[in-house]
Amino acid sequence: MKMTLGERIREQRILMQMTQEELAEELCVKKSTISMYENDKVDIKGSILIELSRVLHTSPNYLLGMEDYDEDLEEMISLFRSIKNAEIRQAMLTSVRAFSSII
């Protein structure tokens, strides 16, 4: 059975080792709002969905059930986002491109 949007939000929040309170704080909303999201009690605006995906290090498409979760890909994205130095980011991107051309 396919997971709902709320179930995917909850799953990703737990994977990120965040509480509902912590997620609410990141999004500047009440904990009860996060609970309503996770229990599919409200429709989530696109702008909120984008912010949720950013905070939860995933994509809006994953949260909407349009793609499967890929743990390795999510880790790579998270690591790439954590690199602030532009030269190091470019070197990492160049390396990934080189690896992808091998296969």
Question: How does this structure look, described?
Answer:
The protein has 103 residues and is an all-alpha fold. It has 2 domains: 1-68, lambda repressor-like DNA-binding domains (434 Repressor (Amino-terminal Domain), Orthogonal Bundle), CATH 1.10.260; 70-103, no CATH class. It has helices at 5-15, 20-27, 31-38, 46-55, 60-63, 71-82, 86-102.
Mean pLDDT: 89
Radius of gyration from the alpha-carbon trace, in angstroms? 16 Å
Number of domains: 2
Going by helix content, strand content and strand pairing, the class is mainly alpha
Oligomer: single chain
Number of strands: 0
CATH homologous superfamily caption of the largest domain: lambda repressor-like DNA-binding domains
Report the CATH C-level class of the largest domain: Mainly Alpha
- In the CATH classification, which architecture of the largest domain applies? Orthogonal Bundle
Using the alpha-carbon principal axes, give the shape.
Answer: elongated
The number of helical segments is 7
